[in-house]
Amino acid sequence: RKSGGNFRTVVFVGDDEELLNVYDRLMTDPTRGYRVLGYYGDGILEVKNTKLQPLKCFGGLNELLENVHQKENLTLGDDMYVCISRKKANVVKILSTLCEEQVIRFYYVPVSVESMGISLKRVLLDDMEIFMTYDNPLQNPVNRAVKRALDLVRSSGMLLCMLPFLPIIAYKIKKQSPKGPVFFKQPRTGLDGKEFYCYKFRSMHPNKDESGTVQAMKDDPRKFPFGDFMRRKSIDELPQFWNVFKGDMSIVGPRPHPVALNEEYVKLIDKYMVRHFVKPGVTGYAQVTGFRGETEELWQMEGRVKRDIWYMEHWSFWLDLRILWLTGKQIVKKDEQAY
Predict the structure, then answer these.
(1) 3-state secondary structure 219-254
(2) Which residues, 6+ apart, have CB-to-CB distance to 157 below 8 Å?
(3) Within 10 A of 325 (CB to CB), how many other CB atoms are there?
(4) Is the four-CA dihedral 282, 145, 316, 126 of positive or negative sign?
């Protein structure tokens, strides 16, 4: 084939740039054994790859159709690749019939998802092929049921274990910050963008900013000593197991952000709200891979969002177990980002 033998000739029909992608794939590897003769189309197919020869135009689409029964007036190869609108289904049928009569291999080229500039995943609706923007294993009802069953078992166990310590924690909070409540609740954005109240042990003195627009900082003056200790050891997050038990959250998932923070970052970060296609979690993949705590700079939140989306697309039972294991290690050892 490299020396010019054992090849098949190709003709394109249409003027969509997708045919240029086909041309590139057929010709960049000579061992495929193709020679593209040219194309029929009403527009111009301008070859941008300088390593390939310009394509010759044999005429418009009407000229091709007018000569369907006079094949001697047409240039037809061994293979025909057609890329025209599906609205012209009758034209596609005519060309398909022409190829059958002339023993020409017929290929219909749909517009590829890559050329649209967005990431689409192939899925099946019965036997129908459709595309979606993000692959989410938790859309599978079996996977959802497994994750929910594990969440119920684990959250029930954690809530029972927490009961004996609740009076002690409540006493320490009220002693060091008597004016505020024991529990802090705040609107957060959850599954499918719906709001819910997220519960925590209060770790800060009552302050003006309780909407969540100002993130907790290292040596934050709003924190009282026991509250600082709870934050470093993630004790303040324990009431979220009640959110898990209720079904607002999962044990593992993207961390829920305050509503006000979401309104800020949705304007700054592309695909920011995609992380809400799954339930938020008490812990998450971003938190165990270096993106826990305050996000002082935009790149830090961008990194968190990328990891949240990666988790959503690659969820598995074993991934959840690994995240739980890494979360346990973070709690045991000192985490510089926990404040």
Answers:
(1) CCCCECHHHHHHHHCCHHHCCHHHHHHHCCCEEECC
(2) none
(3) 10
(4) negative
E-strand stretches of the chain: 8-13, 34-40, 57-59, 79-82, 105-108, 121-125, 128-132, 183-189, 195-201, 250-252, 281-283
Determine the 3-state secondary structure of 216 from DSSP.
coil
Residue 233 one-letter amino acid? K
Asked if 7 contacts 33 with a C-beta cutoff of 8 angstroms, the reply is: yes
The tokens for 115 are 């050329």
Q: Say if CB 335 and CB 327 are below 8 A apart.
A: no
* pLDDT by residue, tens only, the chain of 339 residues: 767 678 899 999 998 888 998 999 888 887 888 999 999 999 888 988 888 899 999 999 999 999 998 888 999 999 999 998 878 889 999 999 999 989 899 999 886 555 555 666 777 777 777 777 777 899 889 999 999 999 999 999 999 999 999 999 999 999 998 888 999 999 999 999 999 999 999 888 887 765 555 666 666 788 888 888 888 888 899 999 999 999 999 999 999 999 988 989 999 998 899 899 999 999 999 999 988 876 778 888 999 999 999 999 999 999 999 999 999 888 777 655 554
- Helix/strand/coil percentages in the chain, nearest 5: 45, 15, 40
CA distance 119 to 115: 10
